Amino acid sequence: MKKIIFFAKDLNVGGIETSLVNLLNELSKFYNTTLVLEKKEGPLKRNLSNKVKIIEHKISESKITILRKGINFTKRVLFTLKYKNKYDFSCAYTTYLYSSVKLSRICSNNNVIYVHSDYTNLYNEQDFRYFFDSRFINDFRKIIFVSNESKKNFCKYYKELEDKTLVINNIVNVEEIINKSKELINIKISKQDIIFTFVARLVEESKKISRLLECFKILISKNKNIKLWIIGDGEEYEKTKEFIKTNNLENNILMIGLETNPYKYISKSNYFILTSDYEGFPVVFNESNILGKPIFSTLDISDDYFNLKNELGFIIPKDPELMSKEILSIIKTEPKIKKLNYAKLNKERIEKIKKVIENEI
């Protein structure tokens, strides 16, 4: 059985972490699978198959630069001596994590790096190139993106690497999502309620929490039956809480916080909404589709199978006023969506990554 190894930060709640667990659980049926984490922690650890071996490679976070660099260099040397070229395939699953990028290249020449976000929205061309050059992007055999947009925008700056790129969207655990969606929630819902669910880390830079709140402030002023459930935690949590209180929106906007099972809330809502400025491909889009919820998104994100414009949801403006007007117009029609065949999609995605592992593509 071939040996494969993946690198990530931890298994805390998040879209990337959920996708990683789903992927490793599938791959461990075919390969001897190892996962290296900077921190061997997180609630999603319990969802990982016991076939997957976990190694912890802690990185020093000492504020004393020379001490931090010395410790991390020593650890990297020891790791190299133990694992150099010991695997048939290695994967840096978290692009942003510098240590995972370096270590993954040690373990195998058959190596890939995953890109989960569209960094052209975060950096100008110079900084974009610096980010990926510092990740030794030229040295990876393949570069895997989770959306067409991310790949296309990357290739604008790295045309010479286009032959190395491919798109493989995330694996989703349909059975788990449906089963968990049936759990009860402790929220009173009336027949008149029109409920939107937002699931994301509460950060302003990418997720644009202020845009979401301003939009719903307008929506609620026009229709008191509109409700918003915010699931997630992050640096904007207290600010979001303060906005809700200041604008007397406590009866309409509920902050649920960090939740390992967002599906039980999504399933009991009417719509899913995401107001980000940039994403790779939100895992929660697949999850919302599985649960039959129309998606409102400020981003036109797609892969080879998933396209919001194709009866899955709606692309809405980024301006809160225009956004609210569009949403009000759409929900009057009580839209329905088509559901994708995820059993088929998962099979195709697994076959594709297996071909990468086997060096067939």
CATH class of the largest domain: Alpha Beta
Alpha plus pi helix count: 13
Predict the CATH topology of the largest domain. Rossmann fold
**Uncertain spans:** none
* The CATH H-level homologous superfamily of the largest domain: Glycogen Phosphorylase B
Distance between the termini: 20 Å
This entry's quaternary arrangement is: single chain
Can you write the helix and strand succession as a string?
EHEEHEHEHEHEHEHHEHEHEHEEHH
Please indicate the percent range of residues in DSSP E strands (runs of 2 or more).
Answer: 15-25%
Shape label:
globular
Q: Strand pairing plus helix content: what structural class?
A: alpha/beta
Number of folding domains? 2
Helical percent range? Answer: 25-40%
Second CATH tier, the architecture of the largest domain: 3-Layer(aba) Sandwich
Strand order of the largest sheet: 3-2-1-4-5-6-7
| Biggest sheet overview | 7 strands, parallel
Report the C-alpha radius of gyration, rounded.
21 Å
Mean residue pLDDT? 93
Would you count the extended β strands for me?
13
